[in-house]
Amino acid sequence: MKLGIVGLPNVGKSTLFSAVTKMKAEIANYPFCTIEPNIGIVAVPDKRLDVLNEMYEAKKVTPAIIEFVDIAGLVEGAAEGKGLGNKFLSHIREVDVIVHVVRCFYNNDIIHVSGGIGPANDIAVVETELMLSDLEILKRRIEKVEKSLKADKKYKKEAEVLEKIKEFIESGNVAREFIASEAEQEILNTIPLLSAKPVVYVANLLEEDFKTEINNNELFKEVCLIAKNENTVTIPISARLEEEISEFSESERKIFFADLNREESGIDVLIKISYSLLGLISFLTAGKQEVRAWTIKKGVTAKEAAGKIHTDMEKGFIKAEIVSYANLISCGGMGQAKEKGLIKLEGKDYIMQDGDVVLFRFNV
Q1: What mean pLDDT is predicted for residues 79-98?
Q2: Which terminus in the chain has less CB density within 10 A, N or C?
Protein backbone atom coordinates (compact mmCIF):
# COMPACT_ATOMS: atom_id res chain seq x y z
CA MET A 1 0.00 0.00 0.00
CA LYS A 2 1.34 3.41 -0.97
CA LEU A 3 0.23 6.65 0.69
CA GLY A 4 1.10 9.81 -1.25
CA ILE A 5 1.66 12.93 0.86
CA VAL A 6 0.51 15.85 -1.28
CA GLY A 7 -0.43 19.50 -0.94
CA LEU A 8 0.71 22.98 -1.89
CA PRO A 9 4.35 23.98 -1.28
CA ASN A 10 5.29 24.87 2.33
CA VAL A 11 2.33 23.26 4.08
CA GLY A 12 4.44 20.77 6.06
CA LYS A 13 4.55 17.71 3.78
CA SER A 14 8.25 16.96 4.16
CA THR A 15 8.17 17.61 7.90
CA LEU A 16 5.31 15.15 8.22
CA PHE A 17 7.18 12.64 6.07
CA SER A 18 10.26 12.95 8.30
CA ALA A 19 8.09 12.30 11.35
CA VAL A 20 6.35 9.33 9.73
CA THR A 21 9.47 7.57 8.56
CA LYS A 22 12.07 8.94 11.00
CA MET A 23 13.99 9.83 7.85
CA LYS A 24 15.19 13.35 7.24
CA ALA A 25 13.62 14.58 4.03
CA GLU A 26 15.05 17.89 2.84
CA ILE A 27 13.03 20.74 4.38
CA ALA A 28 13.29 24.37 3.34
CA ASN A 29 11.22 27.52 3.24
CA TYR A 30 10.77 27.72 -0.52
CA PRO A 31 8.55 26.03 -3.12
CA PHE A 32 9.63 22.77 -4.79
CA CYS A 33 12.14 21.80 -2.15
CA THR A 34 11.03 18.22 -2.86
CA ILE A 35 11.59 17.38 -6.54
CA GLU A 36 11.99 13.62 -6.71
CA PRO A 37 9.68 11.92 -4.22
CA ASN A 38 11.09 10.71 -0.91
CA ILE A 39 9.97 7.17 -0.13
CA GLY A 40 9.84 5.43 3.25
CA ILE A 41 8.58 2.10 4.54
CA VAL A 42 6.56 2.31 7.78
CA ALA A 43 5.17 -0.34 10.14
CA VAL A 44 1.41 -0.42 10.69
CA PRO A 45 0.84 0.10 14.46
CA ASP A 46 -0.59 -3.09 15.96
CA LYS A 47 -0.45 -3.63 19.71
CA ARG A 48 -1.65 -7.22 19.22
CA LEU A 49 1.82 -8.15 18.00
CA ASP A 50 3.40 -6.99 21.27
CA VAL A 51 0.96 -9.09 23.29
CA LEU A 52 1.56 -12.17 21.12
CA ASN A 53 5.30 -11.64 21.35
CA GLU A 54 5.08 -11.73 25.15
CA MET A 55 2.98 -14.90 24.96
CA TYR A 56 5.29 -16.76 22.58
CA GLU A 57 8.64 -15.10 23.34
CA ALA A 58 9.24 -15.06 19.60
CA LYS A 59 12.66 -14.58 18.03
CA LYS A 60 11.21 -12.10 15.56
CA VAL A 61 8.24 -9.76 15.26
CA THR A 62 7.18 -8.60 11.78
CA PRO A 63 4.41 -5.99 11.45
CA ALA A 64 2.39 -5.20 8.34
CA ILE A 65 3.96 -2.36 6.37
CA ILE A 66 2.91 0.54 4.17
CA GLU A 67 4.87 2.91 1.97
CA PHE A 68 4.79 6.69 2.31
CA VAL A 69 5.73 8.86 -0.66
CA ASP A 70 6.52 12.56 -0.15
CA ILE A 71 5.51 14.21 -3.44
CA ALA A 72 6.54 17.63 -4.74
CA GLY A 73 4.31 20.57 -3.85
CA LEU A 74 1.70 21.37 -6.47
CA VAL A 75 0.68 24.80 -7.78
CA GLU A 76 -2.16 26.12 -9.90
CA GLY A 77 -1.57 25.18 -13.54
CA ALA A 78 0.12 21.86 -12.73
CA ALA A 79 -2.09 20.00 -15.21
CA GLU A 80 -0.60 22.26 -17.91
CA GLY A 81 2.93 21.52 -16.72
CA LYS A 82 3.49 24.57 -14.49
CA GLY A 83 5.79 24.23 -11.51
CA LEU A 84 6.57 20.55 -11.23
CA GLY A 85 3.06 19.63 -12.29
CA ASN A 86 3.92 16.81 -14.66
CA LYS A 87 6.18 15.17 -12.08
CA PHE A 88 3.56 15.63 -9.37
CA LEU A 89 0.81 14.05 -11.43
CA SER A 90 2.95 11.12 -12.56
CA HIS A 91 3.99 10.33 -8.97
CA ILE A 92 0.46 10.58 -7.61
CA ARG A 93 -0.72 8.00 -10.15
CA GLU A 94 1.40 5.44 -8.33
CA VAL A 95 -0.21 5.83 -4.88
CA ASP A 96 -3.28 4.14 -3.41
CA VAL A 97 -4.38 6.86 -0.97
CA ILE A 98 -3.86 10.62 -1.17
CA VAL A 99 -2.80 12.14 2.16
CA HIS A 100 -3.63 15.80 1.53
CA VAL A 101 -1.76 18.06 3.95
CA VAL A 102 -3.52 21.38 4.50
CA ARG A 103 -1.93 24.30 6.30
CA CYS A 104 -4.01 25.39 9.30
CA PHE A 105 -1.71 27.92 10.93
CA TYR A 106 -0.44 31.46 10.46
CA ASN A 107 3.32 32.11 10.47
CA ASN A 108 4.85 35.10 8.70
CA ASP A 109 8.22 33.37 8.62
CA ILE A 110 6.87 30.57 6.40
CA ILE A 111 5.75 31.81 3.01
CA HIS A 112 2.51 30.65 1.40
CA VAL A 113 2.68 30.02 -2.32
CA SER A 114 -0.52 31.98 -3.04
CA GLY A 115 0.17 34.71 -0.47
CA GLY A 116 -2.74 33.97 1.89
CA ILE A 117 -3.82 31.18 4.22
CA GLY A 118 -7.11 29.55 3.24
CA PRO A 119 -7.76 25.78 3.45
CA ALA A 120 -10.76 25.81 1.09
CA ASN A 121 -8.76 27.53 -1.64
CA ASP A 122 -5.70 25.32 -1.06
CA ILE A 123 -7.79 22.16 -1.34
CA ALA A 124 -9.58 23.48 -4.43
CA VAL A 125 -6.25 24.18 -6.18
CA VAL A 126 -5.04 20.60 -5.72
CA GLU A 127 -8.37 18.97 -6.59
CA THR A 128 -8.85 21.17 -9.65
CA GLU A 129 -5.50 20.09 -11.04
CA LEU A 130 -6.36 16.42 -10.47
CA MET A 131 -9.70 16.92 -12.21
CA LEU A 132 -8.11 18.73 -15.17
CA SER A 133 -5.67 15.86 -15.54
CA ASP A 134 -8.58 13.40 -15.44
CA LEU A 135 -10.44 15.32 -18.14
CA GLU A 136 -7.40 15.14 -20.40
CA ILE A 137 -7.17 11.37 -19.84
CA LEU A 138 -10.89 10.98 -20.55
CA LYS A 139 -10.66 13.08 -23.70
CA ARG A 140 -7.98 10.79 -25.14
CA ARG A 141 -9.85 7.65 -24.06
CA ILE A 142 -13.14 8.86 -25.57
CA GLU A 143 -11.44 9.61 -28.89
CA LYS A 144 -10.03 6.09 -28.95
CA VAL A 145 -13.34 4.44 -27.99
CA GLU A 146 -15.29 6.44 -30.59
CA LYS A 147 -12.99 5.14 -33.33
CA SER A 148 -13.49 1.57 -32.07
CA LEU A 149 -17.26 2.10 -31.83
CA LYS A 150 -17.50 2.73 -35.58
CA ALA A 151 -16.23 -0.79 -36.16
CA ASP A 152 -17.83 -2.60 -33.23
CA LYS A 153 -21.01 -1.72 -31.28
CA LYS A 154 -19.72 -3.50 -28.15
CA TYR A 155 -17.94 -0.25 -27.21
CA LYS A 156 -21.26 1.60 -26.87
CA LYS A 157 -21.56 1.06 -23.10
CA GLU A 158 -17.99 2.18 -22.49
CA ALA A 159 -18.53 5.32 -24.56
CA GLU A 160 -21.66 6.15 -22.55
CA VAL A 161 -19.87 5.68 -19.20
CA LEU A 162 -16.92 7.80 -20.30
CA GLU A 163 -19.20 10.65 -21.34
CA LYS A 164 -21.10 10.35 -18.08
CA ILE A 165 -18.03 10.61 -15.83
CA LYS A 166 -16.59 13.39 -18.04
CA GLU A 167 -19.73 15.49 -17.61
CA PHE A 168 -19.69 14.77 -13.87
CA ILE A 169 -16.13 16.08 -13.49
CA GLU A 170 -16.75 19.06 -15.78
CA SER A 171 -19.56 20.04 -13.39
CA GLY A 172 -16.93 20.52 -10.66
CA ASN A 173 -17.04 17.11 -8.97
CA VAL A 174 -14.17 14.77 -8.13
CA ALA A 175 -14.44 11.28 -9.60
CA ARG A 176 -14.50 9.54 -6.19
CA GLU A 177 -17.94 11.09 -5.55
CA PHE A 178 -19.40 9.52 -8.72
CA ILE A 179 -21.99 6.85 -7.87
CA ALA A 180 -21.47 4.04 -10.37
CA SER A 181 -23.29 0.79 -10.99
CA GLU A 182 -21.25 -2.41 -10.80
CA ALA A 183 -20.97 -2.53 -14.60
CA GLU A 184 -19.95 1.14 -14.77
CA GLN A 185 -17.37 0.66 -12.03
CA GLU A 186 -15.72 -2.18 -13.97
CA ILE A 187 -15.14 0.25 -16.82
CA LEU A 188 -13.96 3.07 -14.56
CA ASN A 189 -11.45 0.74 -12.88
CA THR A 190 -9.59 0.60 -16.19
CA ILE A 191 -9.04 4.37 -16.22
CA PRO A 192 -6.35 5.91 -13.96
CA LEU A 193 -8.41 8.85 -12.70
CA LEU A 194 -6.48 10.81 -10.06
CA SER A 195 -9.54 12.39 -8.46
CA ALA A 196 -11.02 8.90 -7.94
CA LYS A 197 -8.36 8.01 -5.37
CA PRO A 198 -9.46 7.99 -1.70
CA VAL A 199 -8.35 11.05 0.27
CA VAL A 200 -7.48 11.69 3.90
CA TYR A 201 -7.05 15.32 4.94
CA VAL A 202 -4.26 16.12 7.39
CA ALA A 203 -4.78 19.48 9.08
CA ASN A 204 -1.29 20.71 9.99
CA LEU A 205 -1.50 22.81 13.17
CA LEU A 206 0.95 24.75 15.27
CA GLU A 207 2.24 22.80 18.26
CA GLU A 208 0.45 25.04 20.78
CA ASP A 209 -2.87 24.70 18.91
CA PHE A 210 -2.56 20.92 18.83
CA LYS A 211 -1.81 20.72 22.54
CA THR A 212 -4.75 22.91 23.61
CA GLU A 213 -8.18 23.35 22.04
CA ILE A 214 -7.98 22.08 18.47
CA ASN A 215 -11.61 22.91 17.77
CA ASN A 216 -10.96 26.61 18.42
CA ASN A 217 -8.89 26.70 15.23
CA GLU A 218 -11.15 28.13 12.52
CA LEU A 219 -8.91 26.87 9.72
CA PHE A 220 -9.15 23.32 11.10
CA LYS A 221 -12.94 23.58 11.27
CA GLU A 222 -12.95 24.68 7.63
CA VAL A 223 -11.09 21.52 6.59
CA CYS A 224 -13.41 19.35 8.70
CA LEU A 225 -16.46 20.78 6.93
CA ILE A 226 -14.96 20.07 3.50
CA ALA A 227 -14.07 16.51 4.55
CA LYS A 228 -17.57 15.93 5.90
CA ASN A 229 -19.11 17.05 2.62
CA GLU A 230 -16.80 14.65 0.77
CA ASN A 231 -17.59 11.80 3.18
CA THR A 232 -13.97 11.45 4.26
CA VAL A 233 -11.97 12.31 7.40
CA THR A 234 -9.70 15.03 8.74
CA ILE A 235 -6.82 14.15 11.04
CA PRO A 236 -5.39 17.00 13.16
CA ILE A 237 -1.61 16.82 13.34
CA SER A 238 1.23 19.11 14.29
CA ALA A 239 3.93 17.97 11.87
CA ARG A 240 6.66 19.67 13.93
CA LEU A 241 5.43 18.02 17.11
CA GLU A 242 5.16 14.63 15.41
CA GLU A 243 8.74 15.04 14.20
CA GLU A 244 9.88 15.59 17.79
CA ILE A 245 7.83 12.62 19.04
CA SER A 246 9.40 10.36 16.41
CA GLU A 247 12.71 10.70 18.27
CA PHE A 248 11.22 9.65 21.64
CA SER A 249 11.69 6.25 23.22
CA GLU A 250 8.56 4.14 23.75
CA SER A 251 8.42 5.03 27.46
CA GLU A 252 8.80 8.75 26.66
CA ARG A 253 6.00 8.52 24.10
CA LYS A 254 3.63 6.97 26.64
CA ILE A 255 4.32 9.74 29.17
CA PHE A 256 3.95 12.43 26.51
CA PHE A 257 0.61 11.10 25.22
CA ALA A 258 -0.69 10.68 28.77
CA ASP A 259 0.00 14.39 29.38
CA LEU A 260 -1.96 15.22 26.21
CA ASN A 261 -4.74 12.81 27.21
CA ARG A 262 -4.17 10.82 24.02
CA GLU A 263 -3.43 7.16 23.44
CA GLU A 264 -1.49 7.43 20.19
CA SER A 265 0.10 9.89 17.79
CA GLY A 266 -1.69 11.55 14.92
CA ILE A 267 0.51 9.56 12.55
CA ASP A 268 -0.64 6.26 14.05
CA VAL A 269 -4.24 7.39 13.49
CA LEU A 270 -3.39 8.38 9.90
CA ILE A 271 -1.91 4.96 9.13
CA LYS A 272 -4.85 3.06 10.63
CA ILE A 273 -7.47 5.16 8.84
CA SER A 274 -5.65 4.83 5.50
CA TYR A 275 -5.39 1.07 6.03
CA SER A 276 -9.13 0.92 6.64
CA LEU A 277 -9.97 3.19 3.67
CA LEU A 278 -8.41 0.66 1.33
CA GLY A 279 -10.45 -2.16 2.82
CA LEU A 280 -7.40 -3.85 4.32
CA ILE A 281 -7.24 -6.12 7.38
CA SER A 282 -4.51 -8.15 9.07
CA PHE A 283 -4.45 -11.81 10.00
CA LEU A 284 -1.79 -13.02 12.40
CA THR A 285 0.57 -15.96 12.67
CA ALA A 286 2.34 -16.70 15.94
CA GLY A 287 5.02 -19.08 17.18
CA LYS A 288 8.45 -19.26 18.77
CA GLN A 289 10.18 -18.35 15.51
CA GLU A 290 8.06 -15.36 14.53
CA VAL A 291 4.96 -13.32 15.33
CA ARG A 292 3.71 -11.63 12.18
CA ALA A 293 0.87 -9.56 10.72
CA TRP A 294 -0.16 -10.23 7.12
CA THR A 295 -2.09 -7.69 5.07
CA ILE A 296 -5.08 -8.85 2.99
CA LYS A 297 -8.20 -7.31 1.50
CA LYS A 298 -11.51 -7.74 3.31
CA GLY A 299 -13.36 -10.70 1.81
CA VAL A 300 -10.28 -12.83 1.13
CA THR A 301 -10.74 -16.58 1.68
CA ALA A 302 -8.57 -18.78 3.88
CA LYS A 303 -7.02 -20.42 0.82
CA GLU A 304 -6.13 -17.03 -0.70
CA ALA A 305 -4.70 -15.86 2.63
CA ALA A 306 -2.48 -18.94 2.74
CA GLY A 307 -1.08 -17.87 -0.62
CA LYS A 308 -0.06 -14.56 0.95
CA ILE A 309 2.45 -16.51 3.04
CA HIS A 310 3.58 -18.88 0.26
CA THR A 311 2.12 -20.03 -3.05
CA ASP A 312 2.70 -23.67 -2.03
CA MET A 313 0.35 -23.17 0.93
CA GLU A 314 -2.43 -22.03 -1.41
CA LYS A 315 -1.82 -24.81 -3.93
CA GLY A 316 -1.79 -27.55 -1.30
CA PHE A 317 -4.32 -26.00 1.09
CA ILE A 318 -6.13 -28.52 3.32
CA LYS A 319 -7.56 -26.67 6.32
CA ALA A 320 -6.92 -23.63 8.51
CA GLU A 321 -6.86 -23.71 12.30
CA ILE A 322 -8.25 -20.34 13.34
CA VAL A 323 -8.87 -18.61 16.64
CA SER A 324 -9.74 -14.97 17.06
CA TYR A 325 -7.10 -12.81 18.74
CA ALA A 326 -9.58 -11.83 21.47
CA ASN A 327 -10.37 -15.47 22.31
CA LEU A 328 -6.71 -16.46 22.26
CA ILE A 329 -5.74 -13.71 24.70
CA SER A 330 -8.71 -14.27 27.01
CA CYS A 331 -7.77 -17.97 27.26
CA GLY A 332 -4.09 -17.29 27.76
CA GLY A 333 -2.78 -19.54 24.99
CA MET A 334 -3.52 -22.00 22.17
CA GLY A 335 -3.75 -25.00 24.52
CA GLN A 336 -6.42 -23.40 26.67
CA ALA A 337 -8.29 -22.10 23.60
CA LYS A 338 -8.35 -25.63 22.17
CA GLU A 339 -9.67 -27.06 25.45
CA LYS A 340 -12.57 -24.57 25.33
CA GLY A 341 -13.33 -25.44 21.72
CA LEU A 342 -12.48 -21.94 20.46
CA ILE A 343 -10.10 -23.08 17.73
CA LYS A 344 -12.08 -23.72 14.56
CA LEU A 345 -11.02 -25.90 11.63
CA GLU A 346 -12.03 -23.93 8.55
CA GLY A 347 -12.10 -24.86 4.86
CA LYS A 348 -10.85 -23.02 1.78
CA ASP A 349 -13.95 -20.80 1.44
CA TYR A 350 -13.83 -19.37 4.97
CA ILE A 351 -13.76 -15.55 4.84
CA MET A 352 -10.84 -14.23 6.88
CA GLN A 353 -11.53 -11.75 9.70
CA ASP A 354 -9.27 -9.04 11.08
CA GLY A 355 -7.27 -10.46 13.97
CA ASP A 356 -7.65 -14.12 13.04
CA VAL A 357 -4.67 -16.06 14.42
CA VAL A 358 -4.04 -18.82 11.90
CA LEU A 359 -2.15 -22.07 11.40
CA PHE A 360 -2.50 -23.35 7.83
CA ARG A 361 -2.46 -27.05 7.07
CA PHE A 362 -1.24 -27.87 3.57
CA ASN A 363 0.33 -30.60 1.53
CA VAL A 364 2.50 -30.20 -1.57
Answers
A1: 68
A2: C
